[in-house]
Design goal:
Length: about 210
């Protein structure tokens, strides 16, 4: 019924906000098709706020079109997997929350972050990666507009200090912190001082350089 309602809307009738909550397990193939149809329709109609929360043990696959939208301002995904991926393009995105999201490889995270030039609020919790690459073709660019970063248990993925150096609120838990190889020791020390000066919820966060 929901998919019919959305599809019957004219493409010239925008959808400002779309929120989907699923707290029960469903037949995977049929349910994923329905979700994909809904997300595609919402994206094509210029949705600005997208909030998807799936059943915790289901890990439904989401359409990668959610990472290629010039209109999205807020994107929140919880309990989903990203099995198919297209080049990310999120020029308007200001809020990105990824909670218990599974990616195929770590390069997808890098591409998504690099596709968000005006990102202000970043939350990544319990991210899992299926395949890890020992050599990354691309580093995360500095997120110059970032104000808030809340990162918890993002598997083996490293957090780069120069990416987070502008934040006003920073929360790290069960994380590995790295620095760009292009930084000299003095620049690393200055960046560490700036991060240590930020208000912290927990005093258990340590900063180390490899």
């Amino acid at each position: 019924m929901v998919s019919v309602t959305i599809n019957e809307r004219s493409e010239h009738q925008p959808i400002k906000s779309f929120r989907l909550r699923c707290h029960e397990s469903h037949d995977n193939s049929m349910f994923e098709y329905l979700v994909s149809t809904l997300l595609t329709a919402a994206t094509e109609r210029g949705v600005k706020h997208l909030d998807i929360h799936m059943y915790d043990t289901l890990k439904s696959s989401v359409n990668s079109c959610v990472f290629c939208s010039i209109n999205l301002v807020v994107l929140k995904l919880k309990g989903v997997s990203v099995n198919h991926f297209i080049p990310a393009n999120l020029p308007s995105l200001r809020t990105l929350h990824l909670n218990r999201v599974q990616f195929i490889d770590d390069g997808q995270i890098v591409e998504i972050l690099n596709a968000c030039p005006v990102l202000e609020d970043l939350e990544m919790k319990d991210i899992s990666i299926t395949f890890w690459s020992d050599e990354s073709d691309e580093d995360v660019k500095k997120l110059t507009n970032l104000i808030r970063a809340d990162l918890t248990n993002v598997s083996r993925y490293g957090v780069y200090l120069d990416v987070l150096s502008n934040v006003e609120f920073l929360r790290l838990e069960s994380m590995r912190i790295c620095s760009s190889s292009s930084l000299n020791n003095q620049e690393r020390m200055e960046m560490m001082k700036e991060l240590l000066a930020l208000p912290r919820i927990s005093v258990t966060c340590g900063i180390y350089f490899e």
